[in-house]
Amino acid sequence: MKILIATTNIGKIKEFQEILNQKKIFEIFTLNDLKINEDVEETGNTFEENAQIKATFYNQLSRMPTISEDSGLAIDSLNGEPGIYSARYGGVNLSDNDRVELVLKKMSKIPIEERSARFISVICGVGFGSNTLFSRGELEGSISSSKQGSNGFGYDPIFSPIGDNATLATKEIDEKNKISHRRKSIEIFLNKLIKDKIV
Q1: Measured between alpha carbons, how far is residue 179 from residues 32, 50, 184 in Å?
Q2: CATH number, domain at 152?
Q3: What is the pTM of this model?
Q4: What pLDDT digit, counting tens, does each position of 46-86 carry?
Q5: Domains: count for the chain
Q6: Active site residue 156
C-alpha cells in the first residue's frame, strides 16, 4: 500500500520509516517526494484536532492514504506547556535548542520531584477507508536540570523516561524507538489497520 507521511520534520520521517519499514507492508512517500509545498495552519486546540487537520488537507492534495501526526511535550508544573505548541514554543523563530533553553529557564526553580512530564503522539489517518482513524501513544518521564546527549531532536536532550536518569538524546535510535511515544502510537495505528482488514 502506498501511503503519505505528511510531515517535513526530518526526525519524525526517520522515526516513521524506521518503524514502518520493518512491517514490509507500505511504500512510504513524503511531502518532498510528491513535491507538495503547501502548508496548512494548525488551528486545533488538541493534538487530535491538529493531526486531523493535516491528514485531511494532505490526503485531498495527494489522493493517497495519509498519516499525519501531532506530538509534543506536556510538563505538569508548567500546566501542560508546551503541549500543542511544542514545535513553536516561545515563537516560530526559535531553534530546537532555544526552546530547550526556554524550558530549562522556566523550570530552574522547580525541584526534581515536581518535574514530571510526558511526550504525547497522536496519529490521524485519512483515506484508509471511510472512517478517520486515530491512535495515541505516551511516554512518561521527567525534565532534567540540564541538557544531556546529542542524539534525537526537539526536547530529547532534557527528557528522561521514568526509571532512567539518562535523557532520550543519549540513546541510539534503535533504543529510543523501542520506547518512544511515536512508536506506541504507530503500533496502535497499525493494529487498527490490521484488525479492520485495511492492510
Answers
A1: 28, 24, 8
A2: 3.90.950.10
A3: 0.91
A4: 999 999 999 999 999 999 999 999 999 999 999 999 999 99
A5: 1
A6: no
